[in-house]
Design a protein that fits this description.
Keywords: Cytoplasm, Elongation factor, GTP-binding, Nucleotide-binding, Protein biosynthesis. The protein is of the alpha+beta class. It has five domains: about 1-165, P-loop containing nucleotide triphosphate hydrolases (Rossmann fold); about 175-255, Beta Barrel (Elongation Factor Tu (Ef-tu), domain 3), CATH 2.40.30.10; about 260-370, Beta Barrel (Elongation Factor Tu (Ef-tu), domain 3); about 380-495, Arc Repressor Mutant, subunit A, CATH 1.10.10.10; about 500-615, Arc Repressor Mutant, subunit A (Orthogonal Bundle). The chain has 19 helices and 35 strands. Helix 11 packs across helix 13 and helix 14 crosses helix 15 (about 520-530).
C-alpha cells in the first residue's frame, strides 16, 4: 500500500483487513505511519495475501523501501481531493526501480468530492500517471469510512494475485530482516518477507553478513503458527541461541552460504526523471538493498559526472559495510544530503573488483550484464543445487553442446550418471553435514554416530538426496566422515563418557571386573555407582559399542576383558565340537551364567549350535 502521506493508506488497509497497522504510540499521536505495518487480507486453499502498509512521509522513505522489497502487487493510494503529490511520484519511481509492475490505483476519500467532480479527478490522476509503470493499471474509487469500493478492490486484489505466477520456493532460503524484537518467554524474533526458498521449524540458519549460526525454533505466517514459510510470505521466526542485540534490521537470514557477502557490487543503474543536482564521480550515496541501508560511493568508468537522465548506466557501488546480495537483486540509491532518491537498478555481479577507468571496463560490464553461458549455468545450479543436462537446457536456453563443454570445467561436478552440481555447493553441503554431525555428537557424546537414514531425511529438506549421498560417499573416501555399519561420525569425534560421569562409570566397570564371571544383575551396578535412570540406555549402548561390557542376556553383563578371556580359554581347552558339560568343566560356571554365555557365542557367530553340541566357526 503505497502513496503520499495522508492519502488514506492506513485507513484503506484497515477497511480491507480490519487491522489497524499504526501500532506505535507516536504513530497514533502524529497520525502518520513511521514503521512498516502488516495485515492479513485473505487466505484460502490457493493463496495467502498480506497487506504491507508503508509510510508515505519523505522522512520515512527507507522504511518504505524495506516494505516494498519482495512485494507482488502494489496498491497506489491517491486521495481524490489532492491528486498526485510529490511522494506519490517518488513512490512510483522507487517501484519502477525495484521492478514491480503489477499494480492497482485506489482513488481514496471520494466522499470529499461531489459526484460531478469524481470523473474530473479520475481523468486528472490518469493523466498524471501517463508514462509511469501505473499508466495502464486498473483503478477503483473508494471511501474507507463508508465502505464504497472496498469489496470491489479486495476482489480485484485476490483475482490479480491468483492470475500471476507463484514464486519459486526451490532455491536457498533468504529473508531480509526488517524487524527484530523480543517476546517474553520465547526469546528473539525476526520478521521479514521471504525473498526465495522456504524455511521450516528446526532448520539450521545463518544471520548474514555476521555469520551467526542459529536455528528456526518456531514460525508464524500471517500471525498464525506454521511449520514452514515459503517465498513471498510474510514470516516471523523465533530464533534460538541469539539475542536481540546480535541482530539488526538489514541483516539477512539464510539457509545457504551461496549468497555473497560483499562491499563492491557491479550494477546497472537508471536515474530519476529529473535530477535536481549533478551526480559526481565517487559521490557519497545511500544504498537501500533488501532491508539494508548502507552508505557508500558511486564509481563511474566512462564519465566523471551525470547531469541529465540517460538510459541504463553501468557502474559500481563501493559500500562502507558488507551486504548480502546476488545477481538480479534490486536496489535504490538516495543522496544523503540533500536527501532525495536519485536512481535505482539491479546487481550485475555481487563480487565486483576494482577496475580501470575506460571503455574496456564498460564493455566487460556489458558482457557480464548479459551473462555468459557459464554464468547462466552456475546461476541455475545455485538455485536448484543439482540439475541434469536437459534441465539445464530448460533453465538457461543454452544448447546441449555448449553445456556439455562447460560442465567439464573445474567449477562443476558430476555426481552420478546424469546430474551435476557446483564445487561450491558440494563444499557447502559437506560443511552442513559436518555441522549437523557435530551438533549430534555434542548432544549424544556416548553414541558412535548418527543413523545415516536419519541424516539423509534431515538433509533432504534443503538438499537433493542424490547430492547428499554423493557428498557423504566422497567424504567417507576422503576421510572427512567415518562410517561404522549404518552410523556416521566426523573424523575428529570419538564416543566418550561425559566428564561429569567418568568417575562413577570407572567405579562401575571396576566392580564389574572385580566380580569376574559371577556377576550381579547389571542394574545393581548402576544403582551402586549412583548413575541415574535416564543415562542407563546410552551407557549400555556405549559399553556395548566399545566392548567394555558384553551382555550375556538382558540382565547379566560381563566385563569385556573377562568375556574375551573366557572365549580364549574355552577355545584352547576344547575340541572343534564341545558340549555344555565340557564348557562347565573348563570355566567352572553354573548354568545360570553358562547357558547365556554359550547362546551369546552363537549370536555373535563365534560358535554354531548343532543339537546338544557347539561347533567353533
Amino acid at each position: 500500500m503505497a502513496g503520499h502521506i495522508d492519502h488514506g493508506k492506513t485507513t484503506l488497509t484497515k477497511a480491507l483487513t480490519n487491522v489497524d497497522t499504526d501500532r506505535l504510540k507516536e504513530e497514533k499521536e502524529r497520525q502518520i505511519s513511521i514503521e512498516l505495518g502488516f495485515a492479513p487480507l485473505h487466505e484460502d486453499e490457493e493463496i495467502q495475501i498480506s497487506v504491507v502498509d508503508v509510510p508515505g512521509h519523505e522522512r520515512f522513505i527507507r522504511q518504505m523501501i524495506a516494505g516494498v522489497a519482495g512485494i507482488d502487487l502494489v496498491i497506489l493510494a491517491v486521495a481524490a481531493d489532492e491528486g498526485v503529490m510529490p511522494q506519490t511520484r517518488e513512490h512510483l519511481e522507487i517501484l519502477d526501480f525495484l521492478g514491480i509492475r503489477n499494480g492497482i490505483v485506489a482513488i481514496t476519500k471520494i466522499d470529499r468530492v461531489d459526484d460531478e467532480f469524481t470523473g474530473l479527478v479520475k481523468e486528472e490522476i490518469l493523466e498524471e500517471l501517463k508514462g509511469t509503470i501505473f499508466e495502464n493499471v486498473p483503478f477503483v474509487l473508494t471511501d474507507s469510512l463508508s465502505g464504497i469500493g472496498i469489496e470491489e478492490l479486495k476482489q480485484l486484489i485476490i483475482h490479480t494475485l491468483k492470475e500471476q505466477d507463484t514464486r519459486d520456493a526451490k532455491g536457498a532460503f533468504r529473508l531480509p530482516i526488517d524487524q527484530v524484537f523480543t517476546v517474553r518467554g520465547q526469546g528473539t524474533v525476526v520478521r521479514g518477507t521471504v525473498y526465495e526458498g522456504k524455511v521450516e521449524e528446526g532448520q539450521l540458519l545463518k544471520i548474514m553478513p555476521k555469520g551467526i549460526e542459529t536455528r528456526a525454533r518456531q514460525l508464524q505466517v500471517h500471525h498464525q503458527p506454521a511449520e514452514a514459510a515459503f517465498a513471498g510470505q510474510r514470516a516471523a521466526i523465533n530464533l534460538s541461541g541469539v539475542s536481540k542485540e546480535d541482530i539488526e534490521r538489514g541483516g539477512v537470514l539464510v539457509s545457504s552460504e551461496h549468497f555473497s557477502v560483499t562491499k563492491i557490487i557491479d550494477v546497472a543503474v537508471r536515474m530519476v526523471g529529473e535530477l535536481e543536482h549533478i551526480i559526481k564521480q565517487r559521490m557519497p550515496i545511500k544504498c537501500h538493498i533488501g532491508t539494508a541501508e548502507v552508505m557508500g560511493r558511486i564509481v563511474f568508468f566512462d564519465r566523471n559526472e551525470l547531469s541529465v537522465t540517460e538510459s541504463e548506466i553501468l557502474c559500481q557501488l563501493r559500500l562502507d559495510e558488507e551486504i548480502v546480495s546476488k545477481r538480479g537483486d534490486r536496489f535504490i540509491l538516495r543522496r544523503p544530503s540533500p536527501q532525495e532518491t536519485i536512481g535505482g537498478g539491479w546487481v550485475i555481479d555481487p563480487n565486483g573488483e576494482k577496475y580501470r577507468f575506460g571503455q574496456k571496463t564498460i564493455e566487460a560490464l556489458s558482457r557480464k550484464k548479459e551473462g555468459s553461458p557459464k554464468d547462466r549455468i552456475k546461476a541455475a545450479l545455485t538455485e536448484d543445487k543439482t540439475l541434469s543436462v536437459p534441465e539445464i537446457i530448460t533453465k538457461t536456453s543454452l544448447d546441449e553442446l555448449t553445456i556439455n563443454k562447460l560442465l567439464k570445467e573445474e567449477d562443476f561436478l558430476s555426481i552420478n550418471s546424469k546430474d551435476f552440481t557446483l564445487l561450491g555447493i558440494k563444499e557447502v553441503t559437506e560443511e552442513e553435514i559436518y555441522d549437523r554431525l557435530k551438533e549430534f555428537h555434542l548432544e549424544n557424546p556416548m553414541k558412535q554416530g548418527i543413523n545415516k537414514a536419519e541424516l539423509l531425511q534431515a538433509m533432504q529438506k534443503n538438499y537433493p538426496k542424490t547430492l547428499v549421498e554423493f557428498v557423504l560417499n566422497t567424504g567417507i573416501e576422503e576421510g572427512t566422515f567415518l562410517r561404522k555399519d549404518q552410523f556416521l561420525r566426523n573424523k575428529d569425534f570419538y564416543p566418550h563418557i561425559p566428564k561429569s560421569w567418568q568417575k562413577r562409570t570407572e567405579n562401575l566397570l571396576a566392580q564389574l571386573k572385580k566380580d569376574e564371571y559371577k556377576v550381579k544383575q547389571f542394574d545393581e551396578y548402576y544403582s551402586a555407582a549412583g548413575i541415574p535412570e535416564n543415562l542407563k540406555g546410552d551407557l549400555k549402548r556405549f559399553f556395548e559399542d566399545q566392548e567394555l561390557a558384553v551382555p550375556l542376556d538382558g540382565q547379566y553383563y560381563w566385563h569385556g576383558d573377562h568375556f574375551r578371556g573366557a572365549v580364549e580359554v574355552l577355545k584352547k581347552s576344547t575340541a572343534a565340537e564341545f558340549e555344555v558339560g565340557d564348557a562347565k568343566e573348563v570355566l567352572g560356571l553354573s548354568r545360570k551364567y553358562m547357558i547365556p554365555f554359550l547362546e551369546k557365542l552363537d549370536s555373535l557367530g563365534i560358535t554354531r549350535r548343532a543339537e546338544n553340541k557347539r561347533i567353533w566357526i
